[in-house]
């Protein structure tokens, strides 16, 4: 029996997981066509909603990445606004494909976007979840990796995390298409595109049929 079924509350058993572990294992369970009961989904939502950060933690993170108040002179909001990745002994949190990011841009955005994506899948009518989705979509439109042509470093990878988030939370086909076009425009420039390729394939499996690959 998988860890995620214990963490989600199967047969009264419990397994302590960090929000990151819960997010990753839930993704793995779903990607492998696993099922969750409604009570299990409710429990996952409860745990993830409880993991939102307070203002002090947010500001500490923004100062740590030298991006005060999470906004620059151009109005870009490059980092999360609800879920800051916790300290991990100086190491970036891994993606759902076990990739270790080199930058906070990828690590932090992956952490928040994948969590909010799960919340939307499991509790789309929850007012707190709806607010987070709306605010996050607004934030992503201010970013280079979320809304512009950007093949630079791990902004390229982060654009794919945005694509997967959009596939679950938005009906903006043009926006999704722009992230696909961004991938196609820059993937040939990458020396080691394997993680990005795997993530892109995952995105394609979840996109609306009308989107052109």
Written account of the structure:
This protein has 213 residues and is an all-alpha fold. It folds into two domains: 1-51, no CATH class; 52-206, no CATH class. The protein has ten helices and no strands. Helix 3 packs across helix 5 (104-122), helix 5 (104-122) runs parallel beside helix 8 and helix 8 packs antiparallel against helix 9. The longest helix is centred in the middle third of the chain and has 19 residues, at 104-122. The relative contact order is 0.10.
Name some characteristics of this structure.
mainly alpha, 213 residues, 2 domains, 10 helices
Short description:
The protein is about 55% helix and about 0% strand. It is mostly helical and about 210 residues long.
Secondary structure blueprint with pairings:
Blueprint lengths: L2 H5 L11 H13 L6 H13 L4 H10 L39 H19 L4 H14 L3 H4 L7 H15 L3 H14 L7 H13 L7
Helix pairs in contact: 2-5, 3-5, 5-6, 5-8, 8-9, 8-10
Strand % is under 5%
Shape, principal axes of CA atoms: globular
Query: Which spans of ≥5 residues are poorly predicted at pLDDT below 50?
Result: none
Helix proportion: 55-70%
């Amino acid at each position: 029996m998988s860890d995620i079924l214990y963490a989600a509350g199967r047969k009264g058993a419990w397994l302590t997981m960090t929000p990151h572990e819960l997010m990753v294992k839930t993704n793995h369970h779903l990607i492998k066509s696993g099922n969750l009961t409604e009570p299990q989904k409710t429990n996952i939502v409860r745990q993830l909603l409880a993991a939102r950060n307070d203002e002090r933690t947010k500001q500490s993170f923004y100062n740590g990445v030298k991006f005060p108040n999470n906004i620059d002179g151009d109005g870009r909001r490059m980092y999360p606004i609800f879920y800051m990745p916790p300290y991990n002994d100086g190491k970036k949190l891994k993606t759902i494909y076990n990739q270790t990011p080199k930058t906070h841009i990828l690590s932090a955005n992956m952490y928040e976007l994948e969590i909010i994506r799960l919340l939307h899948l499991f509790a789309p009518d929850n007012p707190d979840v709806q607010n987070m989705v709306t605010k996050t979509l607004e934030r992503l439109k201010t970013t280079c990796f979320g809304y512009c042509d950007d093949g630079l470093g791990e902004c390229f990878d982060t654009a794919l995390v945005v694509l997967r988030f959009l596939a679950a939370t938005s009906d903006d086909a043009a926006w999704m298409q722009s992230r696909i076009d961004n991938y196609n425009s820059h993937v040939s420039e990458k020396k080691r595109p394997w993680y990005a390729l795997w993530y892109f394939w995952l995105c394609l499996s979840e996109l609306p049929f009308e989107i052109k690959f």
